Amino acid sequence: MSEEMYQAFEFAQLAGVTVRTLHHYDRIGLLKPGRYTEAGYRLYRNQDLVRLQQIVTLKFIGFSLKQIKDLLNQSSFDLGVALSQQREIIAQKRQQLDLAIKAIEKASDLLATNDKPDWEAFKRIIEVINMQHNMDWTTKYYSEEAKKKIAERAASIPPEVVEQGQRDWSVLISEVEKAVTEGVDAKSERAAELAGRWSTLIKAFTGGNQEIQAGLNKMYSDQSNWPGNFPKPYSDAAGAFMCEAMAALKK
Question: DSSP secondary structure string, the chain?
Fold first, then answer.
């Protein structure tokens, strides 16, 4: 049975893109047609939809066309893993958008009940969008091997587990900050309990991988160079307390 083929305009209609987009992707080698007619017209196959879906999704996530081309042309490219990774990233974006929507709704409610706008509410909208907009700056701290392992772990861990981990971190950091305020001894049993939970949550992210751990250590030792719109997750005092508590726990 012969394979069904589509001319460029037919494939464009089928895929919901423009013919101009298909021509551009062909020129840069991102999506080559399955065949060309003797007259030079492009012919596409159903399976070309799979690659186009990857391109559209990765572009939506924020990858450049060059990055997408490099990624899809890897000999080790696994469609199943790629779909899982894309699902996870888009789920994270959905969470980010939900935060932005809530901040906007709050500003709108405050505006409806007050004569003057609450500028702090508008500031919060900007903070949320900027904070969640781009985490690419963190990748420079990780080796290629570490980035690959992080992507694999992101694809294998269910979203609900990730959300629970975020909640656990929030609770733990709050308790550590409280311990610092109360003057708890970093070598005490309470500090050891906090350090144990801290270590467990870090391992949940790294999976015990030394490459990921090395990148994480490098990132947190460089907090002074973090983007100005990205708030530190805990105070310097809490960080120093946990370093001392972790060292005491190891002993």
Answer: -PPPEEEHHHHHHHHT--HHHHHHHHHTTSS--SEE-TT--EEEETTHHHHHHHHHHHHHHT--HHHHHHHHT-TT--HHHHHHHHHHHHHHHHHHHHHHHHHHHHHHHHHHH-SS--HHHHHHHHHHHHHHH--GGGGGGS-HHHHHHHHHHHHHS-HHHHHHHHHHHHHHHHHHHHHHHTT--TTSHHHHHHHHHHHHHHHHHHTT-HHHHHHHHHHHTTGGGS-TTS--SS-HHHHHHHHHHHHHHH-
| Domain housing 30 | 5-72
Contact between residue 193 and residue 133 where contact means Cβ atoms under 8 Å apart = no
**Would you say the pTM of this structure is higher than 0.85?**
no
Does 147 share its domain with 237? yes
* pLDDT by residue, tens only, the chain of 251 residues: 457 888 998 888 888 888 898 999 999 999 999 888 888 889 998 888 888 888 887 887 767 788 788 888 876 667 677 677 667 667 767 766 777 777 777 777 777 777 666 667 666 665 655 555 456 678 888 888 888 888 777 767 776 777 788 788 888 988 999 999 999 999 999 999 999 999 999 998 899 899 999 999 999 888 878 766 566 788 889 999 999 999 998 87
| Tokens at 200, concatenated | 């467990």
- Select from 72, 99, 121 the last residue of a domain: 72
Q: Which two tokens stand for residue 22?
A: 């298909």
